[in-house]
Amino acid sequence: MIFSCSVFHRTYLLNNTFIQLCSEIGALSVACRLKTGLRRKTMMELKIQLVPTGEIILPPGKNGESYCQNCSKAVGSDGVRVMMESALTARDRVGVQDFVLLENHTSEVAFIENLRKRFKENLIYTYIGSVLVSVNPYKELEIYTKQHMERYRGVNFYEVSPHIYAVSDNAYRSMRTERRDQCILISGESGAGKTEASKKILQYYAVTCPASEQVQIVKDRLLQSNPVLEAFGNAKTLRNDNSSRFGKYMDIQFDFRGAPVGGHILNYLLEKSRVVHQNHGERNFHIFYQLIEGGEEDLLRRLGLERNTQQYQYLVKGNCPKVSSINDRNDWKVVRKALSVIGFNEDEVEELLNIIASVLHLGNVQFGAEESGNAYITTDTQIKYLARLIGVEGSVLKEALTHKKIIAKGEELMSPLNLEQAASARDALSKAIYGRTFTWLVNKINLSLAYKDELYPANKNASVIGLLDIYGFEVFQQNSFEQFCINYCNEKLQQLFIELTLKSEQEEYEAEGITWEPVQFFNNKIICDLVEEKFKGIISILDEECLRPGDASDLTFLEKLESTLGGHAHFVTHKLADGKTRKVMGREEFRLLHYAGEVNYNVNGFLDKNNDLLFRNLKEIMCRSENKILTQCFDREELTDKKRPETAATQFKNSLTKLMEILMSKEPSYVRCIKPNDAKQAGRFDEVLIRHQVKYLGLMENLRVRRAGFAYRRRYEIFLQRYKSLCPETWPNWKGRLADGVSTLVKHLGYKPEEYKMGRSKIFIRFPKTLFATEDALEVRKHSLATKLQACWRGYNQRSKYLKMRQSAILIQAWWRGILARREAKRRRAAANTIRRFIKGFIYRKQPRCPENEYFLDYVRYSFLMNLWRNVPKTVLDKSWPMPPPALAEASEQLRNLCMQNLVWTYCKRINPEWKHQLEQKALASDIFKDKKDNYPQSVPKLFVSTRLSLDEINPKVMQALGNEKMKYAVPVTKYDRNGYRARPRQLLLTANYAVIVEDGKLKQRIDYSALKGISVSSLSDGLFVLHVPCEDNKQKGDVVLQSDHVIETLTKVAICADKINSINISQGSIKFAVGRGKEGFIDFTPGSELVITKAKNGHLSVTAPRLNSR
Ligand SMILES: Nc1ncnc2c1ncn2[C@@H]1O[C@H](COP(=O)(O)OP(=O)(O)O)[C@@H](O)[C@H]1O
Ligand SMILES: [Mg+2]
To answer: What is the sign, positive or negative, of the torsion defined by CA atoms of 532, 534, 540, 543?
Structure first.
């Protein structure tokens, strides 16, 4: 996955958001993203990246794929990875970039020659395995740009040229992948570049780690804590213009996404003595100069300061006000800005500066001596300023500076101080104020860097990378207590290095049963013991002298040392030394043979500095200060606490022990800084100085162990756990012995026998390359694992979803079926009830209405009404009507009537006058003939006409004769003579007042209606009828016998015209009629088969009429 990683990181340049996103979702998903389609795309974008050194130039090929210029291997197809090592430029490959590759690895000369070659080419970094050796270039190199950082991100460190970023990235990745806290130990003597290296590391994390808005604040604060701490804790020394005068161990805390979320700083023993005294050519802490040079006029006025460092006693001792490499004015601005980034408000800054100014004023407080020798203060202005700045009463301060409070027999006495005592009391106060303020400052920074749990509630266990930048080994002309402590600290660190890289490594090989040729090295434990051993160590002896009642002094301390340690191989004094050494040693000095060289320490001030005492009354006055920072620094409890505080050396020793514990608990990476010359000059390679450092840093031994040893080791279970997925036999679980599992695994991976060794509980891998190849394989494997995981997870997810849905569906179905079944049951129950009621009702139907039958009756009633509603007659002629149940007979009848009335009424409303007239006539005909005359039914459908003869058919003479009389009806008839019954055709005309019988234009007979006595007609189907007229009238010759084909119509018309409805006689048998005066005739009617009208033998007219309707 090396290649993918590099692709991935180059992508960052092009697609920042993507990477940020990727880092946030975690490495596994990144891998997936890369696999799915992104690879090709990024390849296209990978074109050229120009970085000043060690660049890899990848011009795009024809099809967009990239080729590495140096190795000409196609990049991009799976499995082919750019061996960046071979892609390093010629310049990068000056000498060897890893001393392990030196042909003559035991030769110090070759070692130094390699360093020199690279140094000349500005290649300041070289590895010994994983240890980085860095030579201070003393000039700005273009190797710390953002591009460089990107280039080292996520790349295994043998792939790119050695760099502090590679070490940083390696530690970061180890932290993330192995979830183990890391620490980076930077060592080297003063001015070798430790602080610079630690800053570079911090910057690297700040730029390359994923960041959110919250994290950005933390990053800024982490970065900005540096200038503040440097201003207050660094100073120009002879060795280094920006020498750290305190030890610093900083924890950077990372959350699970790898984003820095907090930090914590531990500070170690600040060189307080520098506040009051500096060696020649050295300066006080930077902040004093920065304030005076850079402080605004206003501010200086408020603080009572002048813009002239020469005015201040504490700044003139070293006689070095200006340093060419330092711009105090600019630094002041940087510090002010940093303070506000860290979260100092204006008031706090003001109070802090008040303290810095008051230290300067304190330095200027001068004393005179009275005759008695008692000191008094000669500089009142200073006291005035001090009183205001610290917020104490001037007179009290004055007294406190010149007196000492003694408690004798429970009484407090003020004992005056002499000139010397007063000056040292003043200096003690200055040191105490400055020292404690510095500690307060560190605490304040820690508060602002604190990992705020509530912001990241899910990340309780953040991983940590610790950065140790502590003062380097120091040798001056005059070395004092501070140098003693500093060099002791360096001994301890060297001891740790030896423990972890030389001693324990070799011990481990032995313990693990690896055949091993021991490498000899100098173990400095003997020096550590010389300093720190209980009872016999220098610190113990010093403490003892400090606590001892009586006239203990620095010299008695020296004597004690001589008597206790005389004869120790690493300890010499003037008295104990041989003649040659004696020449270069003062009588007040003792010499320690440190791992890094010999140092003469002057015992002057050792006791005082170790006691670090401040007169009680000075402490009291500080407790009463109105300055908020000072009240926090000087706790009142301290005044009442009777216990003697631990001495400075013991405190330091204890804090170092704790530091060692912290470092031991983490996985270390080393940066060994080398100083190329004492003159801080660029390009000068002082071979003697460098050889000395190479020697005491134990680099050669380190190299030898490295060459013979193994780059990497892991306990079997951890190794197996991490890589087991790379071998089918060990994946997913190995059941047998761990060693067998690892052995199977590495064989499967194709490890060659010389590449690894199997120990008792660990596997040892000789070359980093082998491990990195395995890591690559794991990266590749992660893709398929991720895919598998994804698939399993998706499957599981979908199945759970499916099961849930199925469950829900079943539930819904069950409910729905329940509802349906209940509905059905209800319906059936209701149906059964209905049937039951119906049957019961049927049984009781004849009973009066009672509960048993009411349903049935209602139902019958209802169904009758519904039936009626559906089948109600639509026309008057429709006589149908449903059969009502007995209970409704009456109602039915009424309804029927109503219905009929309604139908009739509707019918009548629609009828026209002609039809009405017709019907009236028909009704009349019905009244007269219905059921009486046989041919009546046949006449019903035939409409009555207004006349059977048109005017053309009637002789006009007749019409004339009628005169005004209007003709109402005319019909052709047959007249039968009264005597012979001869049939003669005639016309019968009806007018309003009479009827006339017409024969061809002659009015043969007129019958007035008034004279018409009656009309007779047979009940048979014949058309004969007799008009009876009075016989008395002469004009009348008797009744008239006529025959009409439309007998019903004709007679009806006659009845209407003559108003003789009731005068029509329908005879059943014979009709008698009058023939002239006194004589009578008869017409006999008999039913027969056809109509025959003849004169019968008896003289009657015989009519045989067919029977049309059987009655
Ligand atoms: N990597 C570097 N590049 C350029 N200059 C450096 C580098 N490292 C150190 N220096 C120079 O050396 C000086 C001393 O380095 P510093 O880190 O303060 O030393 P130390 O902390 O080891 O005493 C710095 O002020 C700087 O000028
Ligand atoms: Mg430093």
So the answer is: positive
- Which atom of ligand 1 sits closest to the CA of residue 325? 27
More confident residue, 632 or 18: 632
Amino acid code (one letter) for 260: P
Q: Whose CA is nearest to atom 6 of ligand 1?
A: 138
The whole-angstrom distance between residue 1094's C-alpha and the CA centroid of its chain comes to 127
pLDDT above 80 for 504: no
User: Residue 614's closest CA among 601, 633, 629, 627?
Assistant: 633
Amino acid residing at 270: L
| Contact indicator for 1101, 1083 with CB cutoff of 8 Å | yes
Could you tell me the pTM of the whole model?
0.64
Closest CA to 553 of 610, 591, 631: 610
Residue pair 242/195 in contact (Cβ under 8 Å)? The answer is: yes
CA distance 259 to 668: 20
User: Quick one: tokens of 612?
Assistant: 């670090």
- Per mean pLDDT, which of 45-49, 131-135, 408-412, 458-462 is the most reliable? 131-135
Report the residue among 187, 230, 240 best suited for mutation to probe ligand 1: largest number of ligand atoms under 8 A from its CB.
240
The residue nearest atom 9 of ligand 1, judged by CA position, is 193
Cβ count near 1047 (within 10 Å):
24
Q: How far is CA 772 from CA 87, 553, 569, 729, 779, in A?
A: 17, 60, 45, 22, 10
DSSP string, 1044-1088: -TTHHHHHHHHHHHHT-GGGEEEESS-EEEEETTTEEEEEEEEEE
50 vs 660, higher pLDDT: 660
Q: Residue 698: which region, alpha, beta or left (left: phi > 0; alpha: psi -120 to 50)?
A: left
Helix, strand or coil for residue 1019? coil
> What is d(CA 624, CA 618) in angstroms, rounded to the nearest whole number?
10
pLDDT digits (tens, 9 = 90+) for 135-169: 999 999 999 999 999 999 988 776 788 999 999 99
Q: With both helix axes pointing from N to C terminus, report the angle between 699-708 and 108-120 in degrees, rounded to the nearest 10.
A: 100
Given the structure tokens 């010397």, which residue do they identify? 420
